Every structure is written in structure tokens, then in C-alpha cells.
Amino acid sequence: MSENDQMQVSILASSSSGNTTYIETPQHKILVDAGMSGKRVQDLMHSIGRDLKDVDSLLVTHEHRDHSSGVGVLARRYGMDVYANQPTWDAMASIIGKVPAEHQHLFEMGKTKTLGDIDVESFGVSHDAAAAQFYQFHHNDRSFAMLTDTGYVSDQLRGTLANANAYLVECNHDLEMLRMGQYPWSLKQRILSDTGHLSNEDGAAALMACMGQQTKKIFLGHLSQENNMKELAHLTVASIMKEHDYGVGTDFEILDTDPAIADPLFAV
């Protein structure tokens, strides 16, 4: 496949404090979520040699502020088409402000939407939001799957996300750091619940259940800045996968994400 016909991705920012991801094909420039200020997203885009004025579509996963706080600003300033399911539109209305009607689009959970040369597949996750859904992107027989903000991964979801070429998967917390940390017990229970977040161990298990021979890049995302560390998440996932005879570093790469530094663009 020529370089001009590839799907390229950058995890611009990923953490419990703010999330946004950039996907481009020859015909489309897409953001998934904008959980920070418009200026911050623009700075992150410039750091990978891209500009928000070229982005045509913004897909929203759910209404929590670390995913939606910049959505309205970007839609109004750059005229992006914004896609979300109806419960998410309803839940984030007070957060994002007014989006022009012509830029509001419904993306129903469990449906696939074709945007020119890219097919976007939506799927529901188990999270304490109105109707959280994430996305898998397909272009020229290549796929990139995003899976964060979920308390568990169902058998059906494992099948949906099987054998993607690249994954962004949640490793939100280290169990001991969370249990021993300063969060109130009610918040710890929420994070640990089936509608909370995947731990480092859960992330590793989800990856091993989903990935296949085509999988070459794995990004560990949505790390809590209070209950995890980049090095710890990476070590935990790599160790578990090696224990199960997965070819870490030979068959595929495990890569880190950052709350403030964009990952370089990569071809899926």
C-alpha cells in the first residue's frame, strides 16, 4: 500500500484528565473526543504537523468532561461535523453549548457509518455514562480499535474487536495504588465496578482476548494520574503477556500514551 493511501493515527492525549485522538485517511481528517480546550487540541495537532482547520469530523464517545469539554468550541470555530448517539447529545448539551444544527449528526450505537474512504464501527461499552460508545476504524483492510472507559469487556465485544492491526486499550489504574490511595471509598468502588475502568491487569486480559496475528501496535491509554504510572502500566501488561507466551517486542509493540505529549503519527 502506498504511503498516500494509508490510514494514519496519533493518540494526541490520553489520561483521566483529557482525551483526544486523530485519524486521517486520504479523504478524511477525524478527531475522536476533545476533552480539553480548543487551544490545547490545536497545539497537540501542530506538534504532529497537522491543523484543526483540516479536520472535518469529530466523533464523541460519551459526555464525561475528559472526553467532551472542547467539543462545542471546536465545532463552532472550525465547522466540524459532530457525531454522537442521542443519549450522549442530550447528556453533553450543558457541557458543550450550542452546536449548529447542520453540524449535529446521530451515530447510533452498534452501527457502522461510512465516511468516504473510511468505515467507522461503533460499539457500546460498560461505563457510567448515558450511552458510552467507542469506535473501530476500517480503511483498506486495516483496522484501528479504541477501547477505554469500560468496566469489563464482554465476549461479544471481544469478537467485534478481534485481530485489529492496532489498539488503544485502557489501563486506567494499578489495583494496589488505587486501593491504598486517597480517593474516597465510594469513588474507588465506582472505578472498580463493572461500569468503571479497566485496571492494568484487565487491559492485558482484554488485549489477549482480542488481538491476533495482524496486531502490530498496542497503545496503553487513559491512565489515571493519581492511581497509575506509565512505567508500571507498561511493565504489568508486558509481563502478563510474556507469561502467556505473547511475542512482546517481536510480533508487536506495546506503546505508551501521555496526557500532554502527542504520540507521533503512525500508519496502521
Automatic annotation (TrEMBL):
One of its GO terms (molecular function) is hydrolase activity. Residues 17-222 form the Metallo-beta-lactamase domain. The keyword Hydrolase applies. Signal peptide: none annotated. The keyword Mitochondrion does not apply. Keywords: Hydrolase. This is Hydrolase. It comes from Latilactobacillus fuchuensis. The lineage of its organism: Bacteria, Bacillati, Bacillota, Bacilli, Lactobacillales.
